[in-house]
Specification:
By secondary structure, the protein is an alpha+beta fold. The chain has 2 domains: 2-102, Non-ribosomal Peptide Synthetase Peptidyl Carrier Protein, Chain A (Orthogonal Bundle), CATH 1.10.1200.120; 106-136, no CATH class. The protein has helices spanning 2-11, 14-46, 76-100, and strands at 57-63, 69-74, 112-114, 121-123. A hairpin with a 5-residue loop joins strand 1 and strand 2 (69-74).
Length: 136
């Protein structure tokens, strides 16, 4: 059973997928730090000392049974950080894909001929026209 599982991992791309997920999680952490610690502080400084992670619209407060007061707020600043992180991740993935995934060269066009009945183009080795269904 163990050998079958090992064969499954090696035969399918499960191992490559697992490695991709691990690297993707690590890349996500790096990009999150890049956005929160490198990109957003200068942007906030240029915009007048704004800390985007603390931007919120307070809808109200809620007091639980123990007397703890909790703010109910829409944290749109954190959302801005996440959107910028997504854009950076998407750009990095695009650059990686563009670097490593090359398009296959286009196949030469298949030889064609004209149907003598309807004058439509069909493949040269066709025995019936795909448009008028006449025997060619």
């Amino acid at each position: 059973m163990l050998s079958e599982f090992r064969a499954f991992l090696l035969k399918t791309n499960a191992l490559a997928l697992a490695i991709g997920v691990i690297i993707g999680a690590a890349l996500g952490a790096v990009v999150s730090s890049l956005v929160n610690d490198i990109i957003m502080p200068p942007v906030g400084y240029v915009l007048g000392g704004v800390d985007f992670s603390s931007l919120q619209i307070v809808l109200g407060t809620h007091t639980d049974a123990t007397g703890k007061v909790t703010q109910v707020a829409i944290r749109y600043g954190n959302f801005i950080n996440v959107v910028i992180a997504f854009i950076v991740v998407a750009f990095v993935v695009f650059m990686i894909a563009r670097t490593f995934i090359k398009e296959a060269p286009a196949a030469p066009p298949a030889p064609t001929r004209t149907c003598p009945y309807c004058r439509e183009t069909v493949l040269a080795d066709a025995t019936r026209c795909s448009h008028c269904t006449s025997t060619i």
